[in-house]
Amino acid sequence: MATTTEVDDLLFGSVEKGKFTVKTTDTSKKPKKVGTDSLGKQEFLQLLVAQMQYQDPLEPTSNTEYISQLATFSQVEQLENLNASYSNTQAFSLVGQTVTVSSTNSETGSATTIEGVVDYVIMEKGKAYFSIGGKLYPAEELSKIKSTDFAYDENKPTVSKAVWNYNGAKPSDVTVAMNFGSSIAEASSVAVMIGSDYVIKGDSLTFEDGKLTVKKEALAGLDNGTYMVTFVFDDERSTNVTDQVTLNVVNSTANTETETPKEPEESDQEENK
Questions:
Q1: Model-level pTM?
Q2: Which domains does the chain have, with CATH numbers?
Q3: What whole-number distance in Å separates Cα of residue 42 and Cα of residue 216?
Q4: Calpha distance 78→9 (Å, rounded)
Q5: Longest dimension (CA), the chain
Q6: Using one digit for the tens of pLDDT, what is the confidence trace for 36-93?
Q7: Mind listing the pLDDT tens digit for each residue in 131-143?
Q8: Residue 17: pLDDT band by 50, 70, 90 thresholds?
Q9: CA distances (Å), 93 to each of 19, 98, 104, 125, 143, in order?
């Protein structure tokens, strides 16, 4: 049979008349705490076994109390299993979702925030890990979950409001501020269409410092009038913007007609043979 000292070493307390009493000690000499503050099934079982070993033989613990404690132990075990199962199920349900994880560098201590789509989830030693952009992150570092539609709208390409004025007598380039999106909604190129069918060729477009420029030569073929300008990006959902930019064309030379000399009329006279 184990001694009271052994129980003290295990539980940091003493047994008196079958009941545990926590020792009052100098906090400066308190053993270094290892693990968490939560009471799991292993700790609960240790307490129960020790109580059975060191109960007062003159006042033994009743069977009813043991049954109650065993029932409590069963509930603790079921809750632990349920929590683990729920956490794993929740982790797997995030595949394809946009999440944000807060990761801390173990060497430098610096914190970084990563946002992206969960490609897959793996389990290692009972812990779930997310794969984002080819890199694994522990599930406990998860800090935010977004719906795919919300995340896409938040990061999709945008075009600023603008009015383009093109004067055929004094032509000049036109520009507009825009961004190509980011994260899951990032685009790499854009097509520009004037009105319903006039497409600007790619070599007439340049993008620099957040501004798209359309060369003046590309607008020379338009008639006088006001046009809506459509921008179509090549992101995953082909984002198109149709209500941000209008184009006013004046003094167009597109339909300038030049007179062509008439061909001389053929003689009605026929040569007699």
A1: 0.55
A2: 4-24+38-88 (no CATH), 94-146 (2.30.30), 156-250 (2.60.40.10)
A3: 78
A4: 28
A5: 155
A6: 445 555 666 677 677 777 776 766 666 666 667 666 666 666 655 545 555 666 778 8
A7: 988 889 888 888 8
A8: low
A9: 46, 12, 24, 19, 16
